[in-house]
Specification:
Elements (H helix, E strand, L loop, with lengths): L1 H4 L3 H23 L5 H14 L12 H25 L24 H24 L2 H11 L4 H8 L3 H18 L9
Helix pairs in contact: 2-3, 2-4, 3-4, 6-7, 6-8, 7-8
Length: about 190
């Protein structure tokens, strides 16, 4: 992150590659799979880029603080989008503020309580996943962390210096262990 703040284009590319799947997941959790996820991912990286000079690495921080910073920006961008949708006035095609007569049902306004509940559930799933990952055997945890970072199985095998078949076996065992230890009250995110 420090190299990116200092203006390194290569550092931005590395950050984008590492963080884009997590930013996308946060945006999708907030607005749903049919929402403007692509726009929110781009907005998140644009906002982060504009605010990069305000980034201060907390003492003893690791990569999780960078992930938290980007996912918080994504959450805020998604919340802004949800609020914008909820208060947008109806306009006609001509641009006037007079409501247009339409036979279709108006799009439902998201219930703030439901949005908050979904966010809390997503946060609880994220925390449960972090705890469950820590309980995995190190070889399985390494594979799962790379999978969660959006790496393909052949990339994981190469990064860990193992055969692709071994990476798939570790991933299968890790998923089984995660399912077995997952809290019953939380839905699993696919």
């Amino acid at each position: 992150m420090e190299d990116y703040v200092d203006g390194s284009p290569r550092a931005f590319a590395q950050l984008h590659e590492a963080l884009e799947p997590r930013v996308r997941a946060r945006a999708r959790a907030m607005v749903g799979a049919h929402g403007p996820v692509e726009d929110l991912v781009q907005t998140t990286f644009l906002l982060a880029h504009r605010a990069r000079d305000r980034w201060v690495s907390p003492p003893g921080a690791d990569d999780r603080s960078v992930v938290a910073w980007f996912t918080t920006i994504a959450r805020n961008a998604a919340a802004t989008e949800l609020r914008r949708r909820a208060v947008r006035p109806a306009t006609t095609e001509s641009g006037s503020d007079e409501p247009e007569q339409v036979d279709a049902q108006p799009s439902p306004i998201p219930d703030p309580e439901l949005v908050l509940h979904e966010q809390r559930t997503a946060d609880a799933r994220h925390e449960a996943l972090a705890h469950a990952l820590q309980r995995l055997a190190p070889p399985q945890r390494a594979v799962m962390e790379l999978l969660l970072a959006g790496k393909a199985m052949h990339e994981i095998a190469k990064a860990l210096g193992i055969k692709p078949v071994a990476a798939r076996v570790r991933a299968h065992r890790a998923r089984s262990a995660l399912r077995a230890s997952w809290p019953a009250e939380l839905p699993m995110d696919h």
